[in-house]
Specification:
By secondary structure, the protein is α/β, with parallel strands linked by helices. The protein is built from eight helices and seven strands; from the N terminus they run E-H-E-H-E-H-E-H-E-H-H-E-H-H-E.
Length: 251
């Protein structure tokens, strides 16, 4: 599957575009005539590097800073995209935070914080992108979830709960928006080699790898491949689907 240069020159909005899956997706989807809006909350230097690389690949790139859990700030970012590019055609909901711990140790504040980013942020961005998509009767929404949203995980109840919510949100949006020719799909990867893995100790990583048939992490570029596919013309009949590149971890 190759990058979809045959697609119309749509505007692609990627949240969490500075590192990991967001970075890989931006670089894969960048190309001549493409319009990319890359949103980041922190890691400004890395975000600027991604934007520069996308421009080198020929994409007209707009760099935006906002917290997806802040509806007003995110609204301002979308307003800027609408003014500069005329609206969002492809939305990649990727920004997220992780957490690890036993249920009884999770505080209400932590629970609300993770949900505000991993769930509210996806809802906010989708809500803000939809008026343009509905008006033109075309759009693509791709949500990044996780295998833990599919099966749950010990000591990751909070993170898994948010990612499970995103899978349900994806399926519901797919049914609701199909009449406007808007597809909504989900990529739910396994252990991905991103900076998020820095929060786990080496022993935990090795234990997880021993349970993965392919014996390795998923590369961000392998996730980006499926994001790009769901956004392509070839996938126009595909909606409400959850695809999980996970090395055979969950089958």
């Amino acid at each position: 599957m190759e990058g979809s240069n045959t697609r119309k020159k749509e505007t692609i909005f990627i949240t969490g575009g500075s590192r990991g899956i967001g970075r890989a997706t931006a670089l894969r989807m960048a190309g001549p005539g493409r319009k990319l809006a890359l949103l980041y909350r922190q890691h400004e230097e890395e975000a600027r590097e991604v934007a520069a690389l996308c421009r080198e690949k020929g994409a007209d790139t707009l760099l935006l800073q906002a917290d997806v859990s802040d509806f007003d700030g995110l609204s301002e970012a979308f307003g800027q995209v609408n003014r500069v590019f005329g609206g969002v055609d492809v939305l990649v909901n990727n920004a997220g935070v992780s957490t690890y711990g036993m249920v009884q140790d999770i505080t209400p504040q932590e629970w609300n914080r993770v949900f505000s980013v991993n769930v509210n942020g996806y809802f906010y961005a989708t809500k803000l992108a939809l008026p343009h998509m509905v008006d033109q009767k075309w759009g693509r929404i791709i949500n990044i979830s996780s295998v833990w949203g599919m099966v749950g995980a010990s000591c990751e109840s909070l993170y898994a709960a948010t990612k499970g919510a995103i899978i349900a949100f994806t399926k519901s949006c797919a049914k609701e928006l199909a009449y406007s020719s808007i597809t909504c799909n989900c990529v739910a990867p396994g252990m991905v080699d991103t900076p998020m893995m820095e929060e786990l100790d080496e022993e935990s990583i090795q234990v997880a790898l021993s349970e993965i048939p392919l014996g390795r992490m998923v590369k961000p570029e392998e996730v980006a491949l499926w994001v790009d596919h769901f956004a392509s013309k070839e996938a126009e009949a595909t909606t409400g689907q959850v695809l999980s590149p996970n090395g055979g971890w969950i089958i």
